[in-house]
Design goal:
mainly alpha; about 220 residues
């Protein structure tokens, strides 16, 4: 793969971040974005994935029949448990970060967005680092598109979660769970491209609809 193609594939994966940067620029909200919340989001995905992985490892180690029954169904079950733990940990951490900002100032709606950007950076870096280490060898348009969709889903659910958290509505866990569902379906359907794409499109559509419904634009207008 040529250098140009490699760079373009990376830019495709990073496209959602550029869109967020463009929006912040035109909306003049640069000063309202919290770098601390971005870093906390990055920390959140590390903690969530680490605890999820520990649960998955324990399930494998303490299953008395693991040695003779390791198959796809068993591994999918382990992954499902790990993703569920990661979801609960990640979303409750989001709740803590966002909830403590409620009532502060007009920047508060961007706290959840910043957390989502930081959280999605974890997955993006897992995709990016091998490309940089193995320059010209591993880039894939499919992988770049999948990363772009996952990052976009995380950003959209982050917008939705702010309003739900503000209302102390724990449905935000289910909304945030769309990101984890997207990741989980990527693994389960990795052998079937058409179904994988269909699942991504469905989750993306749901996340987009929820973002439109729970977008805090009206409340922001009131506080300005």
């Amino acid at each position: 793969m040529s250098t140009t193609q490699q760079v373009l594939s990376i830019l495709l994966g990073a496209l959602p971040y550029f869109i967020v940067l463009i929006w912040l620029t035109f909306a003049r909200r640069w000063r309202d974005i919290s770098l601390t919340s971005v870093l906390l989001g990055a920390f959140g995905i590390v903690v969530a994935v680490a605890l999820g992985a520990i649960v998955g490892l324990l399930l494998i180690l303490y299953n008395p029949h693991t040695g003779s029954t390791v198959n796809d169904s068993f591994l999918i079950g382990v992954l499902a448990a790990s993703v569920a733990v990661a979801m609960i940990v990640g979303e409750m951490f989001r709740y803590y970060i966002v909830k403590r900002s409620i009532g502060s100032d007009r920047r508060e709606p961007l706290v959840s967005l910043a957390y989502g950007v930081g959280f999605s950076l974890g997955e993006f870096l897992v995709y990016l680092v091998p490309l940089l280490v193995n320059w010209g060898k591993l880039a894939s348009w499919d992988a770049s598109a999948i990363i772009a969709v996952d990052v976009t889903i995380q950003i959209m659910v982050s917008v939705s979660c702010y309003e739900l958290i503000r209302q102390s509505n724990f449905a935000f866990i289910a909304v945030g769970g769309l990101y984890y569902l997207s990741f989980f379906m990527s693994y389960v359907l990795h052998d079937t491209v058409i179904l994988n794409i269909a699942a991504k499109v469905i989750v993306f559509g749901i996340a987009l609809a929820l973002m439109i419904v729970f977008h805090p634009t009206a409340r922001e207008a009131e506080t300005e």
